[in-house]
Structures are given as structure tokens and as C-alpha cells.
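chain below, 327 aa
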Amino acid sequence: MIKPDDNPEFLNSFLDYSITILNKSSNSIKEYNYDLTMFLRFIKIHFHLTDETDLKVISINDMTIDTIKKITLNDIHAFISYLTREYHSKATTRARKVSTIRIFFKYLTRNAKLLDTNPAQDLETPKLDKRLPKYLSLEDSKKLLDITSNEDNRNCDRDYAIITLFLNCGMRLSELVGINIQDIDFSECKLNVIGKGNKERTIYLNKACMKAIANYLEVRPKEGVKHDSKFSDKALFLSERKVRISNRTVENIVSNQLRAAGLDTKKYSVHKLRHTAATLMYQYGQVDIRALQELLGHESIATTEIYTHVSNEQVRNAVESNPLADV
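prediction:
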């Protein structure tokens, strides 16, 4: 939880700008606040403005814009190095903090006009290791769906609909949890979801999705649904307490069904079902990479291209498995 009193005024102004103008989600705002608090605490140590060495207990609410004006690119590099040395931060973690710092200084320079020069203007993003996404095979995906449809589970219709949407549409966890019944256009077989950065996009529903949703709606509680701040009465998916289903509950559902299907829950998760949907569509559906980008809600085509790398790796394996390979 963000406590404005713990922040200097210019940081709170940046967070307000990110909410109102950049239209960032609450999760993004929390990440910005966390990253910049850590950065400013380091700066106090780096500039010898405190005798404290424990980053967690350093106060930053007394920092002034005059201190920020003294920060150079080398000071930012020192922070990134500190993350690697003291926290063993992964490249992805460092890249996120670099992105936050870059946005922060851009705001202070261009928008708030509190700085004359931007020290992060030439700040580069750490090189990321390219890793192939983990995903279920077609056979394992069918097995997971088959297990989830088991009528011994009193919530089988709901859970089956959830996993069907994940495997067919590749939506994010937050997108699924946020679906309202009114978001679904039953005549056009499509629904609208709110993705990263509060961006709305359309997801088209195939026959399997429409059937799963219809079956669930027949048993979805109609009486006693809570009228609360989460608009549970409008939610598609409800928990047993008759409120909008939570991220944690969905994660537990997926984990339990993966385990029941004999699949490794350390290897697979909700997000891996998103990878699975994207990979299966690309491999079996001959889906254009731009269409896949639109479907997944990726801002950059580079993010979507990881699924073409999966396919290319399979091509390589096919060549290597040729019986003439060792001749």
C-alpha cells in the first residue's frame, strides 16, 4: 500500500501523473512507487545523506528536488550495479527498474519541468536472456480439460470454463477475473477485457468457449450474490462466497487441476496456460504474428515473436532427429 506521507512531493506528483495522464494500472503505480523508493533510498546512501546502511529503514520524504538535480547517469548506473551486487537481481528486475527511472526523469524534465537536463536520457536497458516459454503440449492440454470437467468437483462447470478460456484465448489472469457478464456479446461470440495499462481489447470466442460459458451460467449463483466494491453481482466468475473470484482462487483452481492431471505445478501455472494458448494457435492454426499480437494484447511485436522462436526450435529438433543426421 502506498503511503503518500512517506514520499517527497515530487514523487507523489509523478504517481498522480501516471494515474491520470498515463492511465497506468494500480499494480503499475505500486511498482513505480516501490522502484523509486528503493532508488531514492540508495541515492541518500550514495550521496552520504544518511549514516544508515539498511535500505529498508531509510526515509525519503525529506528529499528535495535539489538533490535530484545532482543525479547523473553514473549515479543511476551505480544503483543498477548495487542491485546486482547486493540483491543479485535478475536482468528482468533490473530492466523494470531502469524503465521506471527513465519514465520518472522524463516526467521531471518534460512535464513537471523541475529539471533542466534528463540524466536518464541515455540510460540503456540491461540485455535480457531470451528464454523459450514453457507451455503444455496439445495432448497435455486436452488431458487438463478432461480432468477439469470431472463432475466430482462441485465447481466443475466454473473451473472448466476458466481453464477453457485460458487455453483458447490466452488471456491474462487479471483479465479473466475482471470479466463481467455484460462484457460478453453472445450474438457475436466475443468479449471485451481490460488488459495492461487499462487498455481495452476484444477477444473472440470459439465454440468451446461459448459452450463452456453457457454451461457455467446455467449453474452460476443467482441469489445471494454480494453487491460490493468489486461489482460481484456483475462478475462472470464467482467464488463459493458468491463474490467476484480472486486471483488467488483462480491460481489455486489451476494448480489443483494441473496436479490432478499429473502435470508439474512447479513448471506450469496460470501464465503458462497463456503461453500454451499462444503456442498452440501459432503452431496449429497458422496464425499471423500480428493477429497473435492483437489477441494477446502485446504492445510490442517483439514480445509476441517469442512464440515464433518456439516453432523454430521445433524445426531444429526435427532436423536433428532425421535418421541421416549422424551419417
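The first strand starts at residue 184 and ends at 185. The chain has a mean pLDDT of 89.
thats it, cya
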